[in-house]
Design a protein that fits this description.
disordered N terminus; alpha+beta; seven-stranded mixed beta sheet; single chain; about 375 residues
């Protein structure tokens, strides 16, 4: 009789691609991290996995990191075409008098949405944030209610906004985990507008200011997002870095100087990219094997993984991961695209073997009755499986 079982072994130097955030999962078995920051969370977007956390659900003050939500709402208005970059908003007396970081907007002037967004993101302008809030919702209090509505929809359960700027207020609160949820949403929902967070310089009213995010100048792949500081909250940062199709975002807060914020955020990113790797398999639906077909109109069928596989591993685990595929051979026609016809076994050193389905990537019809009889007779006489 013909061969019933076939095994195919692959030792992968793998095809590498080197809203609810998963919680209560620390990667401390790989990342042995200690940090002076009061709140920290490290999140891998591709794996949808929290790699490290410290007090990530503790309440904290977001300071200017609250402006990311202000930007999100403006982006959403642009996406639904109720606003565009050339629209203008009036600079009110309240906005003009705002203290702290400023874009130096002129009282009673009309400023474009684009300039207001750049002022908000690059210069962290409190005046720009208030103008945007008043222009969208009429006043800042109404805009804060809208911010809270968005936060609730996103699942930011520990967040309450009181203004568009992050200006100190006794009721203002968030958590580092909630800021990760917000960051994930703004990156995924507005990939083109998100690029504004990469801008390093913005000049308005003949005043040139630099982006306050230190990672943009010192970290390969850094493209956002926002710093924050008040006396109560200390120094904080939402930073996001993308390298080789892998994005990692870190939220840190509660440091006591700009210098420590810069040093600690860079140190944590360097640890992540040095000590972990993204094991990403089957993303492109590449053919894993070509299996023989019994009594089909085609002699072979292409087999692929049912779904992609993504996991964070150590560099050692990455290099020693083994993939085995297994299927019945030949596969009897008819075969429908998507039929489960085999298994994939992923073995990561020191971990339980993971089993996934392997499916047909195409339809294979039966031979006609006459040709099937001929093929069966040929097999009985000569042992051939197919014509």
């Amino acid at each position: 009789m013909f061969k019933l079982f076939n095994r195919f072994f692959l030792l992968f130097n793998v095809f590498l691609c080197f809203v609810i955030i998963k919680s209560n999962h620390s990667f401390s078995n790989i990342l042995d991290i200690t940090t002076p920051a009061k709140q920290v969370i490290i999140y891998d977007h591709e794996a949808n996995e929290v790699l490290f956390e410290k007090n990530s659900d503790d309440l904290m003050k977001p300071a200017s990191m609250a402006k990311v939500m202000t930007a999100y709402i403006v982006f959403d208005r642009i996406k639904d075409n109720s606003l565009n970059m050339l629209d203008t908003f009036l600079v009110s007396d309240k906005a003009w008098r705002m203290g702290g970081s400023r874009s130096f907007l002129e009282l009673n002037s009309n400023v474009s949405i684009k300039d207001l967004l750049l002022g908000l993101i690059v210069q962290s302008g409190n005046d720009a944030a208030v103008v945007l809030a008043e222009g969208i919702s009429g006043d800042e209090e109404a805009f804060a209610r809208e911010m809270n509505s968005y936060a609730k929809i996103m699942g930011m359960t520990n967040t309450y906004f009181t203004n568009s700027t992050g200006w100190p207020h006794p009721d203002l609160q968030t958590s580092s985990r909630d800021l990760i949820i917000l960051t994930k949403k703004i990156i995924e929902d507005f990939p083109k507008l998100y690029k504004l967070f990469e801008e390093k310089i913005f000049t308005y009213n003949n005043i040139k200011q630099s982006n306050r995010n230190p990672l943009l100048y010192t970290m390969n792949g850094a493209d956002g997002l926002k710093t924050g500081h008040t006396n109560e909250s200390g120094y904080g940062l939402i930073g996001s870095v993308k390298r080789n199709d892998r994005r990692v975002t870190i939220v840190i807060n509660g440091l006591n100087s700009k210098k420590k914020r810069t040093f600690e955020s860079k140190r944590l990113f360097n640890i992540v990219f040095r000590e972990t790797a993204l094991l990403s398999l089957f993303n492109k639906k590449n053919t894993l094997v070509k299996a023989n077909v019994w009594l089909g109109k085609q002699s072979e069928v292409k087999l692929v993984a049912l779904k992609p596989f993504t996991k964070i591993v150590s560099p050692l685990e990455f290099n020693k991961t083994k993939i085995k595929v297994e299927w019945m051979d030949p596969i009897a026609a008819p075969i429908r695209k998507g039929d489960v016809v085999g298994n994939i076994y992923i073995t990561i050193p020191g971990k339980k073997t993971i089993k996934q389905d392997m499916i047909s990537s195409e339809d294979i019809k039966k031979m006609s009755s006459l040709i099937r009889v001929k093929s069966i007779l040929k097999f009985l006489l000569y042992g051939d499986i197919v014509d």
